[in-house]
Fold this protein.
Amino acid sequence: MEITTQLQVDQVQIEDALRTYAAKWPAYGVLKDAMSYSLLSGGKRIRPVLVLEICKLFGGTAEDALPFACGLEMVHTYSLIHDDLPCMDDDDFRRGKPTNHKVFGQANAVLAGDALLTTAFAVLASLPAERVQRGIAALANAAGPNGMVGGQVLDLLGEGNSLQEEEILAIESLKTGCMIEAAARLGAIAAGGFYAWIPGVLKVKLKVNEVITTIMLNSIAIYLCAYLSSGPWKTSQGNRVSGTDTLADGLRFSRLIPGSSLTTAIFAAAIMALLVWYV
């Protein structure tokens, strides 16, 4: 199956599942509306798609992986809501629409993000117990101070400064890379993949982490290349494209490596996941 076709199939499954979860949320004030506004606003759904495809690669099904995929997307969406706040990146638009706090106010935007974050772990907990523990540990580690939140702090510290390549790489390793890494792990865990039984989340030294991050970013670039090259994100020779709300912004040091097969692309991402576990 062509990569664009497979992405579309996965996206439809993910969108349907997200809407099913959102329909069950209680309507306290504007909370449900604020949560749904950002979660169901579209986007490429690259992270949850990766969860589904890695799961299938390890012998599972899309249905096995959907709770992990949706939980991951909820955490990602919460981070976007909070990133857009005036106290953070102070953005007025996200995916072509007014940001959450512009529609519902800052207080409700904070609460919507909080609710998505906590709801995500309830969604993960719907899987078999032996997989829940691994999945929650992987996502919490990637999203917290050891990952995305830590990267956001470094990003804030770097605002207005001319950063060196290693500083930018450290930011992207934590802020972007850890969540993509988590997508690969969650897919294998959902399938009961052989390395899902390895205890704990390994901690690696910074230098090794930089190497792994480079491998990871380039692996995911393979996965995305065919899709992105047909849209406004097209790039050549690794040139950074314009726009703050594109995935290419998070791949600023990676070239988009040509790839023609979804299987090949997912295999590359799986190798990345294995390296992260075993280093």
Remarks:
- The first strand starts at residue 93 and ends at 94.
